[in-house]
Write a structure and sequence with these properties.
- With about 325 residues, this protein is of the alpha/beta class.
- The protein has one domain (about 1-315).
- It has helices at about 25, 70-80, 85-90, 100-125, 130-140, 165-180, 195-205, 225-230, 240-255, 260-280, and strands at about 5-10, 185-190, 215-220, 285-295, 305.
- Strands 1-2-5-4-3 form a five-stranded mixed beta sheet, sandwiched between helices.
- Helix 6 (about 165-180) crosses helix 7 (about 195-205).
- The radius of gyration is 21 Å and the shape is globular.
């Protein structure tokens, strides 16, 4: 986007929602990962789902999601592979540079399991079923050992529950690894998944993000191709998109520099109200609220874009 900011959708597998017809209006250059069910008319090129996401790793055959237990599964794996192969450690260090010996034994299994977990989350997001049962299963797989001290969290405004930290770390590392060839600094994640908001807060909330600082801009949205085409106009893109991109980039830069966000957020909202809403060809079918999160100034993390409307009020666990 303008001023060098690249917007990248999170998570790596993102099932289709009708509200995503709004995305090309505001983010025509959005980078996406695997996009099952997305219409071909959108200006985004999704990736193919890799083969390792289609079948369970060989080490877990005979287990089904409902009865898989962490210790039994990993114990069976260790007995079959020997003490030098530690799948749990491979998962925990996923995305880091592995030691040569460990890479030969554990990396393929960790890669396959990471895709399995991600695909299961995406499938359940699409179906909106069995989310609580799936999260319990994933928590059992990736729960820390009993002798490890569990990280504690303070309250996060607007979020009543946090997901498992190991799961959040694994999903984030998978996303970074898959999207790495497409990332150009400065880049910013756009949280679009149904559970990505509490997942990201769990990932980045120990403890710097437990006191989340954010601003919100309310955008006219659409939920059909006809509405999207009407808003794009005859030239194939809205006349106001460059102005929106410029002002959003200024807001992101202010967030990255730990500056006050109220003034640039107000400027962006005024532009939306006076220009975008005034030129909107139809009564907006709904409001597409966009949050901008700013990190703690003592960290190296950048800003985050979040659409809180994806599964608002529905948290895992």
């Amino acid at each position: 986007m303008g001023a060098g900011w690249q917007v990248v959708a999170f998570p790596v597998i993102l099932p289709w929602r009708e509200e995503f017809w709004t995305l090309p209006l505001y983010f025509p250059d959005l980078k996406v990962g695997v996009v099952p069910g997305w219409p071909s008319q959108l200006p985004y090129e999704g990736m193919a789902l890799p083969p390792e996401a289609e079948t369970l790793p060989q080490e877990f055959k005979g287990y089904s999601p409902g009865d898989l237990r962490q210790w039994q599964a990993f114990e069976d794996y260790r007995q079959a592979q020997g003490e030098e192969s530690d799948l749990l450690q491979a998962i925990r260090s996923y995305g880091e540079e592995p030691a040569p010996a460990a890479a030969k034994e554990a990396s393929p299994q960790a890669w396959s399991l990471a895709w399995q977990l991600e695909k299961m989350q995406a499938d359940q997001e699409a179906q909106m079923l069995l989310v609580d049962q799936a999260q319990q299963w994933l928590g059992e797989i990736l729960a820390p050992e009993p002798w490890e001290e569990k990280l504690s969290f303070g309250p996060v405004p607007g979020v009543g529950e946090m997901v498992d930290t190991d799961l959040a770390r694994l999903r984030y590392r998978l996303w970074r690894r898959v999207m790495a060839p497409y990332l150009e600094k400065p880049w910013v994640p756009l949280l679009l998944g149904r559970t990505s908001r509490p997942l990201f807060l769990s990932l980045r909330g120990w403890p710097q993000w437990t006191d989340l600082k954010k601003v919100q801009v309310s955008l006219p949205g659409c939920r059909s191709q006809a509405e999207c085409l009407a808003a794009q106009g005859d030239v194939g893109k809205p006349q106001w998109v460059e102005g929106f991109t410029k002002l959003l980039a200024e807001l992101l830069t202010a967030a990255a520099d730990s500056q006050d966000l109220e003034h640039p957020a107000q400027q962006l909202q005024e532009f939306v109200d006076q220009t975008i809403a005034a030129q909107w060809p139809l009564p907006p079918s709904f409001k597409w609220d966009l949050e901008v999160w700013t990190p703690d100034p003592k960290t190296e993390e950048g800003p985050v874009l979040c659409w809180p409307g994806a599964g608002a009020g529905i948290l895992p666990g």
